[in-house]
């Protein structure tokens, strides 16, 4: 009761707004709490006391009062004070509200006491109670209590629902050491009147796949058919992702064919997973065929699918094939994005296809895509390596005009070449065009000052000789 005196001011303040304010139970909001308690005792012996009412008002009023408290312990005190009134009975909603407040503040011993009181209060129990209870334990990350909540449902003579089972399974499998208890609960659930559904199987399959037990996941997948449950797209995707992680891409392709034969339309994520795996296994021909089949099978390829295949070709030195993918995607109404261009230009530069790369850079700039400094560097370095310094300066100029600051390495690549080959001043015009562009501080051209100084000294000496 000491806590009641500590919070007396708050308690009296909220009670001052009660509905019932007449007769011997009326309360002046500025009275000390001990007077309030005295009036409670007087009211309990008064024959005029109305059934179901307290100094706070009706059970509905108490419910609202409990719901309005931010302090869960104060809400519990109000609940307890009201409970001690003669013939008072809390609403079922009051129990639910207080359960959430105590659970979210992690007062689990008080929560357990509240559940015991509810069990003997003869309220009709609804599944909402257990939905709240599981939610509380999930938020608190307490898998053991979430597991026990399943059996708490049974103690209340209430039949668990599949959604309760699935939520408990999700909480359990999020902890690796609770995967087996989750599996045992899953196997025994039918004994307690709840049948696992497709989502239940998917939860367990995903957990075992992530744990490396693909064989167990496959066994669960096959049991669905025996129990007249139909796997969904997610069921197939879980197994395909697991096979791809194990580099068993052929098995994933077989699963895709099984999906298609059974009339399923794989979603975008399923195709992304498989395309990425095929490209990483260097099965680029199969990846390209799958990309072409997607639209026929009811899933239109998007930019992610195209970029996955473009990256796969460029990574294997087949940028010319990646150019075909760019053409295909345009024909299919999907426009290349910045990632598409950057990947392709880098791949073309790596293959020495500089003119093609320069063409795609110009295309990027024409639609206001800014080339990444790595793309600029690759193209500038490529032109410098084959002695095409004027073309390198042209790329540098365009990059600066579009606000893309060349990297220090880019300046370091171009300046020595200019200093070596510009004995007769042929390159001076191109470089001067570059230097006319407003150079921001972060271009760090000052860091190549030695090379620039040598170039300028040579230019001055050439002019003095002339």
UniProtKB/TrEMBL annotation:
Domain of life assignment: Eukaryota
SUPFAM superfamilies, A to Z: TPR-like (SSF48452)
One Gene Ontology term, aspect cellular component: cytoplasm
GO molecular-function term, one example from the UniProt record: mRNA binding
Keywords: Repeat
Pfam family, one: PPR_2
GO biological process: mRNA processing
Keyword rRNA-binding among record annotations: no
PPR repeats: 197-231, 232-266, 267-301, 302-336, 337-371
Family stated for the protein in its record: Belongs to the PPR family. P subfamily.
NCBIfam families: PPR
The protein, known as: Pentacotripeptide-repeat region of PRORP domain-containing protein
Source organism of this protein record: Glycine max (Soybean)
